[in-house]
Amino acid sequence: AQRVTQPEKLLSVFKGAPVELKCNYSYSGSPELFWYVQYSRQRLQLLLRHISRESIKGFTADLNKGETSFHLKKPFAQEEDSAMYYCALSEDSGGSNYKLTFGKGTLLTVNP
Amino acid sequence: DTEVTQTPKHLVMGMTNKKSLKCEQHMGHRAMYWYKQKAKKPPELMFVYSYEKLSINESVPSRFSPECPNSSLLNLHLHALQPEDSALYLCASSLRTGFGYTFGSGTRLTVV
What we know:
The complex is a heterodimer of chains A (about 110) and B (about 110). Chain A has no helices and eleven strands. With about 110 residues, chain A is an all-beta fold. Chain A starts with a strand and ends with a strand. Chain B has about 110 residues and is an all-beta fold. Chain B has no helices and eleven strands. At the A-B interface, β5, β6, β9 and β10 of A face β5 and β10 of B.
């Protein structure tokens, strides 16, 4: 069974400080991993996907298969980054539908 | 159109009522999903539709009945719900593996 672990329920940093949200996974196949963000009273939004290796809003995430991790990082946190962040693992079915399992989430608060 | 639209945004229903939630997307996605999200918890998968056929039912009670009339629409019919079914119900769609889901803003359901 696939499992996603986000060890920190809450994370508080000051504006301008680096931030790292941890995500570890267990999956027997080839993982597909995502980070989703949910701002207060807004819909769940896709932030990053590991296959694209892009940077969105200054955030990056690298898949480390050896450590089975997909940590989310940003060098300088901003107050508008305050939100709930979910790491998610997709089971690759080879088709257009697949099962997405979420971690329990990390609530990031960026203080002024 | 790059959105998933859910209606209604809020719904209050009694335990003997019958109501339906509606979800619509016009992105050509062929997979659609229902998730349930309780406060401060991650979304939990309920149903997956692929090419308008139900492909995953995560042991959801029969008082929840999904329907996919066409590739753009997804309904969730509700009957004889319990107060513990009160939650945010999220619809999502996906094009194919590796691209992540697009989520709607959800229907906040309260069962009284």
